[in-house]
Structure to design on (263 residues):
């Protein structure tokens, strides 16, 4: 069994879901040595948990077919009744991953805006370098975003700058949704007390991990806008993040955070 689970929330992702599943599950597969035809050992592999919010386009049916036909021991799904929010989808996935004893828990989008080939780099930051949270960062080494309208790039970039200014939190890409958590981070954060449901959730989780004292590393990645399917982004999502930051700063002054766990 892999020690790593990639959580992928979905809503109407029939164009992407099979391709992203195959791309992630192909990582770390045994290869053939071209010199003598022998099998080379497998590298690190990842399992997948899909959280589907009642997609009417049949996304969940595609996942269940792949589970039944090919990936019964590496692919899993939780089906929810409707669109309940990105944050609650991830928290549902986090709790499932903890119950199933995974040591490294990843967040990832279904639409290939996050490159599956970057998953081993996030894993290495936590497993090999000892960080507790690795963030696939668009802004730690400039602005690494491809095919986004300039207005959206600016909105995302300055949202992260705003969070840094208000909270004093030194992460460059505070709204990033491509991450690897060590198990102990999610065991320590009081998941039922996380308030935000949209992209404010991403800020709140990182900030809470920071306030507890976990070690965080930003791993530079290139973010590529989806090629297929429809974006779920809206101004309301950014509005929640924008106005919620003041509350996070207030919490940072007065809230009692859980203690840092022993290694």
């Amino acid at each position: 069994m892999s020690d790593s689970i990639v959580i992928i929330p979905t809503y109407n992702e029939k164009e992407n879901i099979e391709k992203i599943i195959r791309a992630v599950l192909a990582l770390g597969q045994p290869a053939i040595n071209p010199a003598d035809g022998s099998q080379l050992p497998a590298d690190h592999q990842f399992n997948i948990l899909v959280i589907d919010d009642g997609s009417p386009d049949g996304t969940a049916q595609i996942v269940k077919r792949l589970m039944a036909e090919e990936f019964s021991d590496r692919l899993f799904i939780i089906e929810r009744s409707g669109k309940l929010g990105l944050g609650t989808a991830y928290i549902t996935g986090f709790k499932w991953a903890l119950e199933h004893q995974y040591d490294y828990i990843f967040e990832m989008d279904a639409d290939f805006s996050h490159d599956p080939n970057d998953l081993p780099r996030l894993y290495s930051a936590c497993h090999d370098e000892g960080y507790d949270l690795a963030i696939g960062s668009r802004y730690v080494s400039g602005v690494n975003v491809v095919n986004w309208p300039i207005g959206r790039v600016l909105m995302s970039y300055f949202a992260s700058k705003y969070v840094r200014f208000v909270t004093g939190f030194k992460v460059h890409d505070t709204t990033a949704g491509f991450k690897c958590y060590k198990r102990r981070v999610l065991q320590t954060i009081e998941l039922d007390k996380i308030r935000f449901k949209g992209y404010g959730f991403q800020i709140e989780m990182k900030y809470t991990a920071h306030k507890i004292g976990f070690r965080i590393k930003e791993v530079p990645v290139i973010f590529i806008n989806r090629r297929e399917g429809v974006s779920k982004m809206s101004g309301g999502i950014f509005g929640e993040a924008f106005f919620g930051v003041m509350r996070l700063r207030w919490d940072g002054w007065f809230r009692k955070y859980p203690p840092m766990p022993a290694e």
Q: What stands out?
A: The mean pLDDT is 84. The CA atoms of residues 163 and 245 lie 6 Å apart. The radius of gyration is 18 Å.
